[in-house]
Design a protein that fits this description.
Chains A, B: This is MarR family transcriptional regulator. Chains A, B: InterPro entries: HTH_MarR-typ, MarR/SlyA-like, WH-like_DNA-bd_sf, WH_DNA-bd_sf. Chains A, B: It holds the Pfam family MarR_2. Chains A, B: GO terms for molecular function: DNA-binding transcription factor activity. Chains A, B: It comes from Bradyrhizobium sacchari. Two copies of one chain form a homodimer. By secondary structure, chain A is mainly α. The first copy, chain A, has a single domain, classed as Orthogonal Bundle (Arc Repressor Mutant, subunit A). Chain A is 58% helix and 10% strand. Chain A has eight helices and three strands. The first copy, chain A, has a three-stranded antiparallel beta sheet. In chain A, helix 2 crosses helix 6 and helix 4 crosses helix 5. The longest helix of chain A is centred in the C-terminal third of the chain and has 22 residues. The relative contact order of chain A is 0.13. Chains A and B meet through helix 1, helix 2, helix 3, helix 6 and helix 7 of A and helix 1, helix 2, helix 3, helix 6 and helix 7 of B. Chain B binds a DNA duplex through helix 2, helix 3 and helix 5.
DNA sequence: TGTTGATTGACAGTATACTGACGATCTGGG
DNA sequence: CCCAGATCGTCAGTATACTGTCAATCAACA
């Protein structure tokens, strides 16, 4: 079979391109998340940060950025906002003056418990239009693809490596 | 079968959530795009805008935002940057003083032709880790999902509706 | 015709996201 | 102990992305 002729330069080619679909799906996902969680005033990224700090108390910002695949420079402002809302606190590490350790406050742990159902509703809604079997298939393929492409984007450490010193290995 | 017990509040739940995977895949897609296209100094969004203007010469900003599923308020700065690079020009519409019509310049049309191969390389690389059959399956499911979820995010007009007045119906 | 309501482009404000750079600090080799 | 290199948090600069608002303009109806 001959290779397809060069596609015409047209917006329709964009609609069928993976990059466009990923951007669009990310927009939709954020939109659904914000809708379900608007009572809590937490963004998806702030939520992920809270969960990660809850899972790894005393983590520092650089390792946190690896755990949630989040740029180190952006993380500073996210942490600031979470701190301003009194959901986390930062304590200097005694043995290394560069590092500030992150912990959930009581408020932070509380809001996390409260927001979980809304987050799960949101995650469910994102896939709702698909048939159950297709949802599974899509998640499987996406998980695979993200895993195999992991090093394509700037994430300084793999999550597992980042956490070695915390002694949380499973 | 009993419903699963409530998942523990853990970062692992985030890794398996659709929202996380979509965000991650979008990061990866942008990263690959920028890598392949770094010689051209064009972002994915700027590229999509150029293609759309090429496909619909004389489109206005509001309709353009619908065509590429792009927020109207953000589009202003994107247009400014494309104009600063001399890739597009804006002409006032004679019959409606509110509207400015968008056209590609010669430079814009030229860079579009040149960048296409790099863009196609990038799109290919995003899916490369999957087996060919899985690529097709993923694209099919994603296309379906984005289409069915289209109204979940703030896109004021469906692309087809937005273009009625341009008489480009196929 | 005059006024109401919708539309357009623009702007302010907030929140990701990335590059590149910086000072403070730690670590290892000599 | 001293210094070179690495790491940490931070910052400046740029580019999306969204909400909400505004003045100018247009369209439609009383």
């Amino acid at each position: 079979m001959p290779s397809k002729p060069a596609a015409p330069i047209t917006i329709d080619a964009v609609y069928a391109a993976p990059g466009y679909l990923f951007r669009r799906m990310q927009q939709i996902a954020v939109s659904i998340f914000m809708e379900e969680c608007k009572a809590f005033d937490l963004t998806p990224v702030q939520y992920a940060a809270l969960i990660a700090i809850h899972t790894h108390p005393g983590i520092d910002a650089t390792r946190l950025s690896a755990v949630i695949a989040f740029d180190r420079s952006t993380l500073g402002s996210v942490i600031e906002r979470l701190q301003a809302k009194d959901y986390i606190e930062r304590k200097p590490a005694p043995e290394d003056k560069r590092i500030k350790l992150l912990y959930l406050t009581k408020s932070g742990a509380a809001i996390l418990r409260e927001i979980i159902p809304a987050v799960e509703r949101a995650q469910g809604r994102m896939l709702e239009p698909l048939k159950p079997g297709d949802r599974k298939a899509l998640m499987g393929l996406l998980t695979q693809l993200v895993d195999l492409n992991n090093e394509a984007s700037r994430v300084p450490l793999r999550a597992e490596d980042a956490l070695e010193h915390l002694g949380k290995g499973g």
